[in-house]
Amino acid sequence: MVRKCDYMIRKQMSQKSKMAEYAQLEPHQFRKLCRDAKHTSHTSGACEKYAQANLIVLPKEYANDFVNLCLRNPVPCPLLCQTPVGDPFKVDDSRYLQKGFDLRTDFPSYNIYENGELRLTKTDVRDEWSSNHIGFLIGCSHSFEHELCENGLVPRHLTLGRGVPVYKTTKRLDPSGVFINCTYVVSMRPYKPEDVPKVRKITSSFKKTHGEPVDWGYDGAERLGIPDLKRPDFGGQPVIHDNEVPVFWGCGVTPQLVVMQQKDKIRGPVISHTTGAMLALDITSEDIKRIG
Amino acid sequence: MVRKCDYMIRKQMSQKSKMAEYAQLEPHQFRKLCRDAKHTSHTSGACEKYAQANLIVLPKEYANDFVNLCLRNPVPCPLLCQTPVGDPFKVDDSRYLQKGFDLRTDFPSYNIYENGELRLTKTDVRDEWSSNHIGFLIGCSHSFEHELCENGLVPRHLTLGRGVPVYKTTKRLDPSGVFINCTYVVSMRPYKPEDVPKVRKITSSFKKTHGEPVDWGYDGAERLGIPDLKRPDFGGQPVIHDNEVPVFWGCGVTPQLVVMQQKDKIRGPVISHTTGAMLALDITSEDIKRIG
C-alpha cells in the first residue's frame, strides 16, 4: 500500500514536471509530440497561453444536423471550425489553426465509435478517417484555465496534476435532426462560494470555450442529475474541500455522448479525441476571448 | 349558456375575418394600425408572408448580460437586433426593420414590469421608454406558421382564430451574469405523430425564429415539466385531438419570464410585448430563413 502510494505520488510528480515543460511549448511543437506519440494523455496545462480544442469526426451525411445542433446548443458545443469532406489538413477558419497540422495524428489519442459504441482507442486515426468524413473542432474549457490561474484561482486538477473531472448529466440539449434525446456533459472545478462570482465573470468572456458555468453548488449537481460527485464518468478523480462547492462548465465531450446516445442511427465510424486529451490550437486564450 | 357560446363563436368569427384582412397587409400598414390602437391583440396570421418579433426593453446596465444570455440560449432567445440606448426609432440590423417605426407604439400592446412584477398593460409606452432603455427584438415562431400552412400543416390555433397556447416549463436556460435560475417558455401546436418529422424539418430552417421543436409528445410535456396541457400560462386555449400529440417550440416570452424570475435584482422598469401580440417586421419569412 505504501509502495502503491509512493508510486502514485511519483507518477503525479513526473506528470506535473512534464506538464510544466509542455506549458512553455509552442502549439506546433506540442502537436509534433502528439503526432510522434510522445505525449498520449491529458493536455490540461499544455501550451498554457494557447487555446485547445475537442474533436468529433462524422460521416458527411450527419454534418448539417450536427452543425445545427452546435448552433442551437453553443454552451456544451461551441463549434470553432470544420474540415472539408475527407481532408484532415484544412479547416474553414484559419484563426484557430494555420498550416502544418494533421487532425488524424495531432491529438494525443482518439476514440473510434461504431453504432454508438466505443470500439477502439488509438493514438493515430489515419486508417479510419475516410474520404467521407468531416472533422469538427469544438472549444475546450482548458482555454480559460490560464486566466483562472493568473487570477489566483488555480483549478484543483492542475494542482493535482490530473485531468479535469467530467460528468454526464440529465440536462437536455435542444434537438437537431437525427440528434435527439441528447444530454450535456460537464467539467467540474471546485471553488469557495465567495469566489464563484469572480470565476463566473472571468470565464464568461470565453464565449467560444463554454463561457461561464452552467450551474454550481451541491444543489446545482442535483439539478444536473449527477448522482455521485466522487465518481466522475471521465477525467481525473475530484478533490473538493469542505469549504468549497463544485462549479460546472459545459464540456466538449458532449458531442461524443450525443453520438453514443443515437446508437445505430449513426452509421459508419465516428472518431473523437479522448476525454481531456485535446488539440493545441494556434490561437492564444487571449485572442479566442475576442471571438463571440 | 347558449348566448355565451353564440357570442364566443361570433367573436371568433369576427377575429378570424379581421385576421384574414390583416394577413394581406404590408408590415408598415399593420404597424400603423397598432400605433393607432386599432389592433391591440394577438398577431398570429397578420402580414402572413412576413416575420414577426418579440420585444424586451431593459435598463442599459443589464444589456451585456442579456445579449450573452441570448447567445448562450439561441433557441428560446434568438436575438434579431437591438436599439441604441434610449432610441426606439433605430435598430442595429436593417434587414429586420427599415425606417418609419416606433418600438414604443408599433406593438399591439405592452407589459410593464417593476421588480419582476407585472404592473401595467398599455398599448403605448412612450412615457415609460426612458433615455436609459435598450430595446431587443427576439425572433417569433409566428414567422414559420405561413410555411406550415403552405405545406398543409395549418397550426390549430389559426383554424380556431386564437393565439397560440404558451406554457412555462422547468427546462433551464444556461445562466448569464445577473440572469440565473431562468426557465424556457414554449409555444405548442398539436400534430399527428406521423407529421412530426415533416413539421420538424420545415421549422428547422427558421434558425432565427426558434427553429425546430424543443420536444414533442405527452412524454415531452412531462420532460418539460408542464403539469396540465389544458391550462396554458399564456395565449389561447388548446384543442388537441385524440390522434395528435403536442409539439413544443422555444418561445420569445422567455425573456419576460426571465425578468420576472430575477425579481428585484433588475431595478427600473422593464417593458415587453404582451404574449402573442408581436411586431410585424419588414423581412419576409422566406428571407429570415436565410439568416443563420
UniProtKB/TrEMBL annotation, chains A, B:
Keywords: Lyase
SUPFAM superfamilies xrefs: PSTPO5379-like (SSF160920)
Pfam families (alphabetical): D-Glu_cyclase
Signal peptide start and end residues: none
Top-level taxonomic group: Eukaryota
InterPro entries reported in the protein's UniProt record: D-Glu_cyclase (IPR009906), Putative_hydro-lyase (IPR038021)
One annotated GO biological process: glutamate metabolic process
MF term (GO), any: D-glutamate cyclase activity
UniProt family annotation: Belongs to the D-glutamate cyclase family.
Name recorded for this polypeptide: Uncharacterized protein
Origin species: Ogataea parapolymorpha (strain ATCC 26012 / BCRC 20466 / JCM 22074 / NRRL Y-7560 / DL-1)
